[in-house]
TrEMBL record:
This is Sigma-54-dependent Fis family transcriptional regulator. Residues 141-370 form the Sigma-54 factor interaction domain. It comes from Aureibaculum algae. One of its GO terms (molecular function) is ATP binding. Keywords: ATP-binding, Nucleotide-binding, Phosphoprotein, Transcription, Transcription regulation, Two-component regulatory system. Residues 3-119 form the Response regulatory domain.
């Protein structure tokens, strides 16, 4: 249930704002504060999803409330309420981090669109924080082969820059993991990393997913919606399987890279974005270019740094480490004791042809842990890890 705070010293306007927002959605919980000082105390002691704050108020004005909130709870989007003479100040608050501003008297549609968009942004921030915690806990680059050591070395050099990176390699090799490590080790790590699987989104929806849309721009567009580029502002956007992106969407991505701005579907308004782009593909993009399926200019924009993730068959020396890593991870997930693998079992697994790469190895390890003996043996491998 979204929790919203309205800070406004004029009681009549405060009541109108609360009534409009409450009637828009019965699940909204709307609280009131009669001045900036009271509002600031409420922000400190509560978790709000959105704050609407007047600019000119006694005791503490809206600019000060905004600045203090940005320091203690920067994830809360703030809509500033401005009188006719406060427009310059309202614009200034945008530079200080406000999500938007609403003029008095409030226009109904303008207000509700701003509230919806601000709540959408808050939910994306929360989702990204959860994702980041999950990533930090579950993602780890395992291996000490020359190939993996080389990739780790590139990441150490590249992560601290804003250089765009193109990650290539077969399915299941860990391209997503490389992207997460790049983000985690970068100066953008405190900002969102937003993932987009370009192959999983229908071509007619990919542009809306990436750049957002305005209400009425196509059938089903019932409200304004921010896209993934806006959600990733200040952070990283990971375009997975970019080789499957439509040519139309490619053109818009190219513009975003060239000009650092995007426009929502159905709108001609430019929105500035500060996003690092990391892309990945299992396709040969040079071949796709020759066949007219991928833009050459976009390729050169993306491939500032190229990282090729090797197939598991090309780094077999890492398999013992990976087996141990997965065995420990699966035991933790299942709440059971970790199973060991005999030397012969590990050697047998190193001889397999891993067409599904690390993803396939992980599945086989889990199968052997479930079906094998207390110590997984070579016979268990022969019986349960059949190819």
């Amino acid at each position: 249930m979204p929790k919203i705070l309205v800070i406004e010293d004029e009681a009549a306007i405060r009541r109108v704002l609360k009534k409009i927002i409450s009637e828009e959605n019965a699940t909204y919980e709307v609280e009131e504060a009669e001045d900036g000082l009271v509002g600031m105390e409420m922000i400190k002691n509560n978790d709000y999803d959105l704050v609407l704050c007047d600019i000119k108020m006694p005791k503490m004005d809206g600019v000060e409330v905004l600045e203090k909130t940005q320091k203690i709870k920067p994830e809360i989007p703030m809509l500033m309420i401005s009188g006719h003479g406060d427009l310059d100040t309202a614009v200034q608050t945008m530079r200080l981090g406000a999500f938007d501003y609403i003029s008095k008297p409030p226009d109904l549609n303008r207000l509700l669109n701003a509230v919806r968009n601000a709540l959408d942004k808050k939910s994306l921030v929360v989702e990204n924080k959860k994702l980041k915690k999950k990533v930090s806990k579950n993602y780890e680059m395992v291996g000490d082969s020359d190939a993996i050591s080389h990739i780790k070395g590139i990441i150490e050099k590249v992560a601290v820059t804003d250089a765009r990176v193109l990650i290539t390699g077969p399915n299941g090799t860990g391209k997503e993991l490389v992207a997460h490590w790049l983000h985690e080790k970068s100066e953008r790590s405190k900002s969102p990393m937003v993932e987009v699987n370009c192959a999983a989104i229908p071509s007619e929806l990919i542009e809306s997913e990436l750049f957002g849309h305005v209400k009425g721009s196509f059938t089903g567009a019932n409200k304004d919606r921010a896209g993934k580029f806006e959600a990733a502002n200040g952070g990283t956007i990971f375009l997975d399987e970019i080789g499957d992106m439509s040519l139309s969407a490619q053109a818009k991505v190219l513009r975003a890279l060239q000009e650092n701005k995007i426009s929502r579907v159905g709108s001609d308004k430019d929105i500035k974005v500060n996003v690092r782009v990391v892309a990945a593909t299992n396709k040969n993009l040079k071949k796709e270019i020759s066949e007219g399926n991928f833009r050459e200019d976009l390729y050169h924009r993306l491939a500032v740094i190229l990282i090729k993730v090797p197939a598991l068959n090309d780094r077999r020396e890492d398999i013992p480490l990976l087996i141990n890593f997965f065995a420990e991870k699966i035991a933790n997930e299942q709440g059971t004791a970790k199973k060991s693998f005999s030397d012969k079992a590990i050697k047998k697994l190193q001889e397999y042809d891993w067409t599904g790469n690390i993803r396939e190895l992980r599945n086989v390890v889990e199968r052997l842990i479930i079906l094998g003996n207390t110590e997984v043996s070579e016979d268990d491998v022969k019986l349960f890890a059949s190819k």
